[in-house]
Every structure is written in C-alpha cells, then in structure tokens.
Amino acid sequence: MTSGAERGAGAPAPRSADVARVAGVSRKTVSRVLNNEPYVSDEARRRVLAAAEKLGYRLNHAARALASGRTRSIGVVALGTAGYGTASLLVHIEHAVRDAGYALRIVNTPDGGPDGIAGALESLLEQGVDGIVVSEPIVEGKVQVRPDVPVLFIGAPPAFTATRTVTVGVGAHDLARAATEHLLDLGHATVHHLAGPRRWYATRDRIEGWQAALAARGAHEPPLLNGDWSAASGYAAGRALASDTSVTAVFAAGDEMAIGLIHALREAGRRVPQDISVVGFDGNPVCAYVSPPLTTARQPFEAAAREGIRLLVHTIEQPDTDPPPASDPPVELIVRGSTAPPPPLPR
Amino acid sequence: MTSGAERGAGAPAPRSADVARVAGVSRKTVSRVLNNEPYVSDEARRRVLAAAEKLGYRLNHAARALASGRTRSIGVVALGTAGYGTASLLVHIEHAVRDAGYALRIVNTPDGGPDGIAGALESLLEQGVDGIVVSEPIVEGKVQVRPDVPVLFIGAPPAFTATRTVTVGVGAHDLARAATEHLLDLGHATVHHLAGPRRWYATRDRIEGWQAALAARGAHEPPLLNGDWSAASGYAAGRALASDTSVTAVFAAGDEMAIGLIHALREAGRRVPQDISVVGFDGNPVCAYVSPPLTTARQPFEAAAREGIRLLVHTIEQPDTDPPPASDPPVELIVRGSTAPPPPLPR
DNA sequence: TTGAAAGCGCTAACAT
DNA sequence: ATGTTAGCGCTTTCAA
Lengths: 347, 347
Prior knowledge:
alpha/beta; 6-stranded mixed sheet; transcription regulation (chains A, B); transcription (chains A, B)
C-alpha cells in the first residue's frame, strides 16, 4: 500500500531477474545499480530502482555472499555479562558497524576463556564474516583458531594470531594512572587497588597503571584486593578492608565494585570520603547519583569503538594501504564527591 | 597442529566435495552427516567426520542458506541504550538463541520509533533470518513492513503484523502492581509513579499496574512524573518533588531513575525511607549496594528470554503444531531499605 | 543406505 | 554503458 510492494501471500519473493525483466534491462545491470557500481546510465538506474520498489524486491544476502565471497558483516566476540562497561562498548560497536554499512553477528563467551573464544571464532567464521571484533579478552591460554579475516582487538594486544590484526586501546593504563595520581595529589600516602579477575587484560592494564603512578611518586605498593567486577565482590573486599584504618584511599577497577566497596565501608562506620576516598572506573552515568557521587575514570567506549571499526573496515576493504594511525582517546577523570584529602591523623 | 587442520596459507578453503573425496563417499552423504540426517551408516559417518577434521573443513553457511532457504539464524531488533534492563535481556536472548543452535544477528534502534523498527526489520529480512525478536517496542506509529518469518515480541503485544507472531510477557503489570501494593501495605496513603517515556509499551504496562493497585485500594491517583529511564531524569523528577511534603512514596519505573530520584530527595533534605519511600524496577544487582539499598521489582529477563526463544524456535521449526503454552514468570519484589512506613505526621 | 543431477540468487569475468 | 556466461558451495529432488 505504502511502498507499492504488494504480492500475494503465497507468491515467491521476487528475484533480481524479475526486477531486470520489469525494468527492461539485464540482471547484471540490476546488480550494478544495487551495488552502486559505475557505468550505469541515470535512466537505467531510475528504471531499476522503480522496478525494485514496485515489486517489493529484497536482495538475497546469502546469494550475494556465495557469489562474491564477502558478506558485508562483522562478527563480535562479546565477553558479555550485563555490566555497564561491556554493554556500553557493544552498543557503540553496533552503531559504528552499522554506520560503516555492515551487519552485525554476535557470539557471547561469558567465561571468556581460550576455548570459549575459539568456539566463538569458529562459529563466526562458519557464518562467513568479513571481520571480527574481540573486546577485552582473557590473558591466559592459547586460542587454537587462526581466522583468515582481519581481527580487531579493543583494549588489548592481539590475543591470538590471524591473517591481519588491528588493535585500538581504551587508554586504560593512563586512566588508571590518572585515577591513582588524583588520590596521591590529594595527599594520600598510598592507594590500594581493588582489581578485577587477573585473567582479563583489562585487569592487568589497570594494575600496571596503578603501579606506575605509585612508583613515580615513590609510594608504597600495598597488596592487591581481588574482585570479579560485581558490586557484591566490591562489598566483600570492603568488609575485609574496613577494619584497617591505615587504608585511606582505594582505586577500584570498576564502578560497580566501587559502589559495593563504599557500601561495606560505610556499614562498618568508615566515612567516604572523610575517612577513605574511593575512585571507580568506567564512567557509568549512574555514578553521579549514588552517595557519595563517585569519582570515576571514564572509559572512551564510543571513541574506541568508532576508531576500531574504522580501522577494521579499512583493513577489510583496502588491505594494501596502511590505515591512518589511530589517535589515542583522551584520558578523562570525573572528579566527584567520593574523594578528598586523607583524615588529619593517619594512625 | 592440534586438530590436524593444516593447509598452506594461500590454499583455498576445503569444500564438501573435498571431504567427500577424502572420505570416499558422495557429496550428498557428507551433507547428510553434517545435518544429522538419517540413513547414513556408522562407517560412512565416521569416515566423513574424520575427513572433515583432517582437512579443517568448515561449512559454508551462505551456500547452505542459498540452497535450503534457511539460515539457522535469528535476528534481534534491540532498543539499545546501555541501560541494565535492555542489556541484560539481550545477554539472555543471546544465550537462549545459541542454546537452540541458532546464530544471532542484531540491529539496534536507539530511538525505537516505527521507522527505525521498519528499517531494522528490512535489514534483518535481507540478511535472511529464520525468525525475529523484538523486545519492548514503542507504542505509537505504524510499522510498514510485514515480515514473512515468525516474530517474537518480548514484554509487549504484537506491534505490527507478521506471518506468525508469538509473545511472551515479563509480568510487568503484576510487578508494578506488587511494587505499589508493597508501599500501600506499609501504610502510605497513596503512591506516586515516576514513569518512563510514554511511547514505550513497558512504560504503559507499569503505569497500568500501578493504577490497578491504587484503584483496588481506593487510593487517590496522583499525577504522573516523567522520566526517560536515565538516572539524570530521575534526579530532575526528584528535585521537582522534594518540596512537596505530602509525597511519601514513589514507585519508579526503573532502577537508574530511582537512584537519581533518591539522590535529589536527599540533597533537598528529605530522608529515604524515613520521609519518603522509593521502589525501583528491573532488579539491577547494584541496587543492593546503594544507600539506602533499593527495594526493587525484579524483571524475569532470563526466564522471558528462554521461554520466548523456545516459542519462537518452535514456531520456526514446527509451524503446524501448537507450542506448549508459556508459563507466566514469577513476580518477585526484592524488599530492601528504601521503603518503610510513612512518617507519623503526614501533613 | 547411497548417489547423480539440478538448481538456490547472485556476482565475476569477459564479452560487446 | 550494457549484456552473456559460468560458477560460488551447498541442499534438494529423484533414482538406484
């Protein structure tokens, strides 16, 4: 009714040959128009488009993929829990992929281990993607698949080999360093770190940034606290920490963990930020509204996704020319009410 | 090295004909084995599997799709911001889809309007999915695409027509009602409601559940407060509300909004829950660790996704037989510290 | 239980 | 600027 694309319910879907017939051209010309290839007269183009519209024609991607060897789709290996960080990154990846004119295929690997990643890659490769995105993979273990399409690693060095790999950082090291320095600048003697699971690259990056900041100031490096990104794990760490009054500053590797940590601290009678300062990591918008509003290191998810996909698509479409080098995203520390100078009598 | 699947870098990928040759059978027999069809001798099956393994054979999904007309993939129209609710639902959908042996294709529609949904459907249909999932769509406007594959609507009635539609609820109405009743049971004279954007079905459901609870108790129905799911919008609503001391209880349609709301209330000097009680909606785990811990209505995302995909796959694979009816997921209200009886002197 | 032949709908290579 | 031919790698008949 609206687009003139009516056909009986049982009728077969129109094919490019039908469009060609109605438009009075060859199938190849239809193909040219649909793929925006040159050497088509405006007149022919117009007629093809009109015929396609009239018939309600829809291109068959499977046939195109089979004939051309390309799918115009990108696969994502997601390390997906529903945490803010991974979800946010995924949303931005989707957006960037769509803007680039590609479709998105997703395989999740909740555990993120080498076998999970290998399985996800196999699945994506079978489906026939032109490129693959791996975000924040795991450190340990060997991935026994070698994709023959370009692979983008976001926030990590290549975790396995592939025909071509491209990487884009999220500045985690610098962000962690900035977060730690912020605490040091406030006058804290040292800063404790609540880390994520050691198997993640993301965890390692943050630890190293934190260590670098401490070392640069000659501050003592206290033992690591361990979490698993969840608020519950932050809470557990907070309970363990609360009785130690020598602790005056904690940098948590994730906002959720920071929130759990603060909750435990306050339950134990320690004030934030008066007794202990806490910095989070990610930049979850909700952090502005918790008590106290959380100082956090904002990860440039959107910039990283956009830049990464740009690089990946370049590698897919022009494997021979070097892509313009990626510009490092800006480091952004959002200072709010959860950080303050240490208490006057650090006993 | 590991799987014996070595071939030179430049060599073409093996095809089913290669497997057939190595196994000493016909291509059709290879196809039978790969599709778990009957009428293959154990001996033939074994040889085919061994040959495939040896060659590092990987099935070409595009070719299969072209030949069979089916893709074994399911498309999701996501209304994706990075909020906990949508992200969590998506994770569970992915899991359920994979368990069912299907691949996942995703198109996001941040605005969620009819045109956005129509475009997303077009894209999915071109890619050739066997079924489509639409989660929590928008109320208004007409979607001018009529998919010829089954469509699953999660948390909403069918928003447009399709060959076959199947729906699965998230119990939003009952959850909203339970949240409101909880507040009423505590002794509050009435309950205010901070709603999401009116264009969402999800918003409407919650409003109706809230109204039903109020009506059942003969409570006065105060004017709606408006938010957009974000913590910032909850904060804005809280500022507007803080000066009205007649308000003693608010049911917020989302956890993030509830957190923003509470923050504004406290900034204005109103205590939660002593002066005002607040209930959230979704069941974000982090709610247990904010101050005060947030009472919230937990949405059964996992159950809804699992049940919905089960129904959808049934409709795809056995269009003739009716699927076993969906069982409504349990209503679960998590009571924490943000709700209490109203203050003694309701002025 | 197995195989031979004929497409699926499109694009690539080579005309014209 | 346009058309013709020959596949892409698989599944579907249908026959054996």
